[in-house]
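[stage:ingest] chain + small molecule (magnesium ion)
[stage:ingest] validated
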Amino acid sequence: MNNYEYLLSDISILKGVGKSLASKFRRKNINTIFDLILSIPSKYIDRSLETKIKNLHIGKIQTITIRVEKYNFPRIKNLPNKVICSDDTGRLDCIFFNSYEGYIRKILPLGKLVTISGKIGFFRGKYQITNPTHVSTDKNKIKKIHSNYSLTEGVSDKIFNKTIKEALKKLPKMNEWLSPNILNYLNNISWNDAILNLHNPNKTNDQKKYIERLIFDEILSTFLINSNIRKNFKKKNKIPKKININLVNYVENQIGFKLTEDQHKAITEINNDIGSKQRMFRLLQGDVGSGKTIVSLVSAQNVILNKYQVAFMAPTEILAKQHFSLFKKIFGKTIKAELLTGKTQYKEKKKILNYLDNNKIDIIFGTHSLFQKKIKFKKLGLIIVDEQHKFGVNQRKKLSEKGGSNCDVLVMSATPIPRTMMMTLYGDMDVTLIKSKPKNRKEIKTYTKDINKINDVIKFIKKEINNDNQIFWICPLIEESKKIDHQSSIVRYNYLTNIFKHKIGLLHGSIDKEEKDKILNNFLENKINILVSTTVIEVGIDFPNATCIVIEDSNKFGLSQLHQLRGRVGRGSKQSSCILLYKSSLSENARKRLKILKSTNDGFLIAEEDLKLRGYGDLLGFQQSGQKTFRLADPILNEDLFVLAEKEIKIIENENKDLSKYNSLLKLYDRADIVNELI
Ligand code: ADP
Ligand code: MG
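[stage:predict] done
[stage:export] tokens:
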């Protein structure tokens, strides 16, 4: 058996772990021995320091050596047995409920010195310990530090400890996988030492360094897997595509504005990839409204001019359609573009599939349905995925396989990711950043307002509409919910309809697709002035004429989500505003979050703050990413270790050494199936 095989065995192979206990552990996501021994004790009970009776602290667990002075075993039922003990500084009683005299005489022999550890109580002027469990005439037999595990139903601390002890009995000696430098940084603690000390420490205050060693392993394994995906992706050479440098000029003429410096830079980086022998596997990241679409369309056209096909995937049909229309507007005269959605009629769909397979379509826009097995491309040269965070790592990996050896991959995301998360989420990709926004943009003005002052908001909106601008009004839930006091979009729609003579649209989750698209189209074509909506409009769609977004119960949204929503306005040259409504009682935390949003339009900064306030588990996009969350590592608390791991990965990549020494590490930290395919 390999070292890691024992660790990856089911816990039920351990002595004392039957079916029922195993299923209780499973409820806590503890399936394997490795899962079990990575359980961090929730606390340590330290019995190592002895004290004297006069220095005892009531309510604390303390250890003292005492002389057994006298038994007091009352003959009356229900009265506890008492043993009076003392040291040279005072008296302490041991109280026993439901214990036999014989047992008491045995553990506390009269006249003898006994070391005892337990929670100190105080009753009628005397210190006492009730039903002491840690008693011995031999001081050394008292376990100095006890690990306490956070419990799950049916698993007592005693059973937890026993199971861990059982698992550690056969703990295999792992060969060191960390480099000497890193090991040095981590206090030269081996994996085995870390595990053993975690559960059986000699001191309670040096746990941090043992846990850090384990955390680093976890981060490094994640990064290594990402790095392997990238390497594997690039290993196979492709035919370089030629780049048409006049395209940018052509596009600028068509759309009527100049591209920003960052957009130019992004195009150059992508062009270099497209024109190289290695396949592109690149993330184009830029805040909402930074102009990623046009960059991707230029890349698409370059690939098409090389007589390859392009597949452009968006998370919603309406967004796919918008990209499709823009592309047609710019390149439509010469290029054969198609849109494939759920609404495409059967006959039409069949034709499109046939044309794709016969290379009669140059570029196709659609949702993830573009990557169904039955859709075959004759000569796919580029896959573009918009709003990638809606899709996730697995889809990304599938995608990279779909294209074949000459296919480049470009994914886009507007979700700014804090630096420590970059390697975790996108470590398998190269990254291009668009930092600046188009110059004609005005900062979106953000206001917070008590819902009681809704009349002010109505006045404001009236002015906007009179100036021929459009409004988003966001409500969090569809219908009145008793549980959560969210404002319903239907109620709000009726309310606004009563006030405004203008056209108002309503969009929420239970409106069917066709109707939804119709409403969005009407809004796009300025046939609707106010669009009341739940958060369904969050993603990507471009409404240049919308200048104001009102968000109700704004404190119920995450910061990054609010920023994404706010990004729906301010896309044209007009002054835009975002009004964050709240009900009067705001928590301290909510107040802080809204303040951050008011103070900056910088999505990256907001993401960092969001991370600090809510923890990384809630980070927009992280949960959807399909990537498992860490067991031990925390991108906020362990930022230094993330940075260290990132440096180490670069070193490992540059050295280009045999990776077999990381085998056990990679096997232990799940996703081993991916590794199997790669190494
Ligand atoms: P995102 O990066 O969020 O996908 P889009 O690509 O949808 O942003 O662009 C947002 C808006 O900005 C669109 O209306 C687009 O036409 C416009 N835009 C893009 N680039 C520029 C530019 N360089 N100058 C002015 N407007 C631009
Ligand atoms: Mg976009």
